[in-house]
Write a structure and sequence with these properties.
Elements (H helix, E strand, L loop, with lengths): L1 E5 L20 E2 L2 E2 H9 L7 E6 L4 H9 L7 E5 L10 H12 L6 E3 L4 E3 L3 H11 L2 E7 L3 H4 L3 E5 L5 E6 L8 E10 L5 H8 L7 H8 L5 E6 L6 E3 L3 H14 L1
Parallel strand pairs: 1-4, 1-6, 4-5, 8-12
Antiparallel strand pairs: 2-3, 6-11, 7-13, 8-11, 9-10
Length: about 250
């Protein structure tokens, strides 16, 4: 299994803080957001590598970070060549770039690296291995104002996704996809190429899931929201909230 971390965004909603540093390299209690995530995913038995996709502006910063990362031998950084927010090729475009550059044919895990979470990813992976089909990570956010900014989901009695709508305020559901967390079998990677070739939106990975569940069997794994937490670092406010929360864990 390969893990792909799309980190080629420019963090414009967090300017000026992220003008010269990517969100993923911001610190929480002495560790970067990226280091915290790497520590959670680097121990899978069948992991063959971690791929980080960044842009030309931040590529050297990621290389500097990698030089002191204790997991550097399993990490490869790809530069997507873009220099500013207007040139970016989108999350799905970067994922496809990683697959094609690395010639990946095996299973992959996708996760947004600007996320702070406590999820037991081992159980998520076990569920995926059992189902032998694509799986997305889900979390009941409880509040519609939060759910309206995410991919709303409905499952059937077998745990299969029967509805997925990205940022749809007309649907009163609070079970949502989180952190772009997704596991796909090697044979399902062809769908990413098909999705891109059809001219669909490359900006948000949730749009790909919205397209995919109508063409392939996709399951949802629901993380317990009573014992877990996560923060999507997409704004200065969410970053401050995550810092305050992290300070209480020490």
């Amino acid at each position: 299994m390969k893990i792909i971390l799309p980190a080629a965004g420019y963090g414009t909603r967090m300017y000026p803080l992220t003008k010269d540093i990517p969100k993923t390299l911001l610190e929480l209690q002495g560790k970067t957001i990226l280091d915290r995530l790497i520590e959670q995913i680097a121990w899978f038995d069948d992991l063959t590598g971690i791929i980080i996709i960044t842009n030309n502006r931040f590529y050297k910063l990621f290389e500097k970070w990698l030089s002191s990362c204790k997991y550097k031998d399993m990490i490869h950084i790809i530069n997507d060549g873009t220099k500013n927010n207007e040139e970016r090729i989108g999350t799905v475009g970067d994922i496809l770039l990683a697959i094609e550059t690395e010639k990946i044919e095996e299973d992959i895990m996708l996760i947004n690296p600007d996320t702070v979470l406590s999820f037991n990813l081992n159980k998520f992976k076990e569920f995926f291995d059992k189902k032998k089909s694509g799986v997305i990570g889900l979390f009941d956010v409880k509040k519609l104002e939060i759910a309206n900014k995410k991919g709303k989901t409905m499952l059937d009695e077998k745990g299969r996704v029967v509805l997925f709508k990205e940022k749809d305020e007309t649907i009163n559901l609070t079970l949502c996809s989180v952190a772009g967390l997704c596991l796909l079998k090697g044979h399902e990677l062809k769908f990413i190429n098909q999705y891109v070739s059809e001219g669909n939106s490359l900006d948000v990975s949730g749009k790909f899931i919205e397209w995919l569940y109508t063409r392939d069997t996709i399951y949802g794994y629901v993380f317990d929201n009573k014992t877990n937490y996560y923060f999507d670092i997409g704004s200065l406010e969410s970053y401050e909230d995550a810092k305050k929360f992290a300070s209480k864990l020490r």
